[in-house]
């Protein structure tokens, strides 16, 4: 039995829906190997499970009533993927990041309230708690989810013995950078972890066998240190440089971070000439000077009240690059790979080679660069805007990585290793067991995107696994680092459905067809492929209960009375995997999903090919406007009135105030969320009474949409 989850990543430039699938824990345990039993749930995703739209939800801060129609294509896309009979058991989350964090608190609350009310009224997805499912998550939470996703895909959780970095360390650090903020998350070495225990987050998950696993992670965020916000601060600093004694800014400002020959306004719009009255930026293409001018933006001279600090006076425990190896996503990947094609030259980040490429690019004339863009020298995804911005982005990334975080510039030969360190020996010892480079930019590991949304769904799926004993019954989630066995007051649980779909319920025909298609794709025999496709076709034709009954009666009439049933319940044409299509028993088997990057193959098998931004273009979606795709939609009850005065979250007054460790999505305190008190949960409960369920805990066993198959055998003991 497959389980599903839907999460919307509401970023600053757009919103992307991700649909994930995994096996019900009871079903997964049936055929699990010894290693799989001590592993986290096996999350599955396909390229077609994602879809992105622009702009970001923050653009609806002044018109929240319009956000529902904006999100509808994403809801339709999710509904087109999740089987109709499982929609009510599928949780939906929308988590907003830096773009919405910059809105005024009242606008944030209005926007979130409208989103929750719309989703409840227009879909049947499980949404029992607005405060938990529809959030503005702090940067610390975003970083923690990203850390979970990276280590999950790399195998650091499930195969720690294959990822020994020394000093008992087996996890990887995580770096993320968007347009408005940047995050870091890592597990400090044992010495630093003990020294800064109060600064760490306690993360608790549960493996398939029901045992708890705990990690202590440091995570923080720098709001205003994303590439777009950094560029705005850079332009303001440049204006100060060209400001005269009379306070007026010079008309022409030389910008070393723009290609030579490019003239733009202060917002980056290219200009044909500079005759206008407003100040303009004139590119000089001097990358070395660009790096130097971007350096002060790190604000490394800010007072540090809690040593040590990295950027802007924010405390970060000392990083031991002997054991802390970082994965960088988002802008770390785009800025190093979109134009410069590092993936085709070297899988590892080489600061010297990278800076050489950027310097050559930025020194070229703008007309030459435009011509290369038109000729698709860097691929069809690179446009003039990307080429125009990459020089500053590269300079900012280099400053953040090396002068900010302290990533060694020369990889394994850097200054972090002590006397007697043998790089060649270390590489040979760890070959095939992960990478030892201090930094590696990635986009996908195998076929799954390294996204913080995956981390959230891993945590949710782990929370669905029942504990094996009272000692492992502590809740799954995260919060402040407290003594063993004590649940901190700010602990945020995973929010998992405590009553998953019963194991004795058969997979829907669409899930079975998908599994068969995947199995057929893995076989090389054309005859087997044709056989599987025929089964899928038959399953589609006879997916209706009355058609199965008709087929069943036909087969009963053709069998002589008293003749034996050949093959038993799992044999013959309608046995094994085919029985899923016709209501066979749960013993018919269900293909186990293959864990991406299993058993320590790690970064040596990173997929570092061409940048895949197909989701931005929605090239694989044909359901965004289809009414037929909106299966599982509710009756469209009226949107309730929301009492926004009850929301109490604090508003940051500046990009450069250190971010709080508690807030929406990170520190859920007693008394329920503000959204609960506004009346939205009351509405949720009333809807669920109509469905005959309680707080999203639904069982498919009583689903009115599913009939009992005439071919279903007696239930087996589990």
From TrEMBL:
Segments for region (Disordered): 607-637, 698-718
Ion transport among keywords: no
Keywords: ATP-binding, Hydrolase, Membrane, Nucleotide-binding, Transmembrane, Transmembrane helix
Family the UniProt entry places it in: Belongs to the GDA1/CD39 NTPase family.
Lineage of producing organism: Eukaryota, Fungi, Dikarya, Ascomycota, Pezizomycotina
GO cellular component: Golgi apparatus; membrane
The keyword tRNA processing appears for this protein: no
Signal peptide, first to last residue: none
Tree of life domain: Eukaryota
Database matches in InterPro entries: GDA1_CD39_NTPase (IPR000407)
Regions crossing the membrane: 526-543
Feature: compositional bias, Acidic residues: 607-620
GO BP terms in the entry: CTP metabolic process; UDP catabolic process
Amino acids binding ATP: 179-183
Organism: Lachnellula suecica
Protein known as: Golgi apyrase
Active site: 142 (proton acceptor)
PROSITE patterns membership: GDA1_CD39_NTPASE (PS01238)
GO molecular function, one term: UDP phosphatase activity
């Amino acid at each position: 039995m497959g389980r599903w989850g839907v999460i919307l990543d509401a970023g600053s430039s757009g919103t992307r829906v991700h649909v994930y699938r995994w096996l019900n824990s009871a079903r997964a345990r049936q055929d699990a190997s010894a290693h799989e039993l001590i592993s986290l749930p096996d999350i599955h995703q396909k390229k077609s499970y994602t879809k992105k739209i622009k702009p970001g939800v923050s653009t609806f801060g002044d018109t929240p009533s319009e956000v529902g129609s904006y999100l509808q294509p994403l809801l339709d896309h999710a509904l087109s993927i999740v089987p109709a009979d499982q929609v009510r058991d599928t949780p939906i989350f929308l988590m907003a990041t830096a773009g919405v964090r910059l809105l005024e608190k009242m606008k944030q609350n209005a926007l979130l309230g409208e989103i929750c009310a719309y989703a409840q009224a227009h879909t049947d997805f499980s949404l029992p708690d607005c405060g938990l499912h529809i959030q503005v998550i702090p940067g610390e939470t975003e970083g923690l989810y990203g850390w979970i996703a990276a280590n999950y895909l790399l195998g650091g959780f499930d195969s720690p013995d294959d990822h020994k970095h020394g000093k008992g360390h087996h996890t990887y650090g995580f770096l993320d950078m968007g347009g408005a903020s940047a995050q870091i998350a890592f597990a400090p070495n044992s010495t630093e972890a003990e020294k800064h225990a109060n600064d760490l987050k306690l993360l608790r998950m549960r493996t398939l066998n029901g045992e708890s696993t705990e990690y202590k992670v440091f995570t923080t965020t720098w709001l205003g240190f994303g590439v777009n916000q950094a560029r705005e601060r850079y332009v303001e600093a440049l204006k100060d440089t060209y400001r005269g004694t009379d306070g007026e800014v010079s008309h022409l400002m030389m910008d070393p971070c723009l290609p030579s020959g490019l003239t733009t306004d202060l917002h980056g719009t290219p200009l044909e000439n500079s005759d206008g009255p407003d100040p303009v930026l004139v590119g000089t293409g001097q990358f070395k000077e660009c790096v130097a001018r971007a350096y002060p933006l790190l604000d490394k001279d800010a007072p540090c009240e809690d040593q040590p600090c990295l950027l802007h006076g924010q405390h970060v425990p000392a990083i031991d690059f002997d054991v802390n190896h970082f994965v960088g996503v988002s802008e770390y990947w785009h800025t190093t790979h979109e134009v410069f094609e590092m993936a085709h030259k070297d899988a590892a980040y080489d600061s010297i080679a990278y800076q050489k490429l950027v310097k050559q690019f930025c020194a070229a004339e703008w007309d030459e660069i435009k011509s290369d863009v038109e000729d698709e020298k860097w691929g069809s995804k690179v446009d003039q805007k990307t080429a125009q911005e990459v020089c500053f982005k590269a300079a900012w990334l280099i400053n953040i990585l090396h002068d900010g975080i302290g990533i060694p510039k020369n990889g394994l030969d850097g200054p972090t290793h002590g006397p007697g360190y043998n790089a060649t020996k270390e590489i040979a010892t760890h070959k095939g067991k992960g990478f030892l480079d201090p930094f590696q930019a990635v986009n996908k590991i195998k076929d799954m995107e390294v996204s913080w949304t995956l981390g959230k769904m891993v945590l949710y799926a782990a929370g669905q696994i029942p504990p094996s004993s009272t000692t492992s019954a502590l809740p799954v989630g995260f919060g402040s680092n407290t003594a063993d066995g004590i649940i901190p007051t700010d602990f945020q649980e995973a929010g998992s459905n405590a009553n998953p779909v019963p194991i004795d319920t058969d997979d829907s025909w669409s899930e079975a067809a998908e599994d068969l298609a995947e199995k057929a794709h893995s076989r090389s025999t054309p005859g087997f492929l044709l056989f599987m496709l025929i089964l899928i076709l038959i399953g589609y034709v006879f997916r209706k209960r009355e058609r199965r009954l008709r087929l069943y009666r036909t087969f009963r009439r053709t069998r002589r009375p008293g003749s034996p049933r050949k093959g038993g319940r799992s044999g013959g044409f309608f046995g094994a995997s085919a029985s899923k299509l016709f209501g066979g028993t749960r013993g018919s088997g269900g293909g186990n999903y293959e864990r991406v990057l299993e058993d320590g193959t790690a970064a040596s098998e990173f997929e570092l090919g061409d940048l895949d931004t197909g989701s931005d273009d929605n090239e694989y979606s044909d359901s965004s406007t289809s009414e037929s795709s909106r299966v599982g939609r509710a009756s469209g009850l009226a949107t309730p009135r929301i009492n926004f005065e009850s929301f109490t979250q604090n508003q940051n007054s500046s990009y450069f105030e250190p971010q709080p460790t508690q807030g929406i999505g990170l520190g859920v305190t007693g008394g329920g969320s503000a959204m609960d008190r506004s009346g939205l949960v009351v509405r949720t409960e009333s809807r669920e009474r109509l469905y005959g369920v309680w707080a999203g805990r639904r069982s498919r066993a009583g689903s009115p949409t599913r009939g009992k198959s005439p071919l279903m055998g007696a239930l087996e003991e589990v």
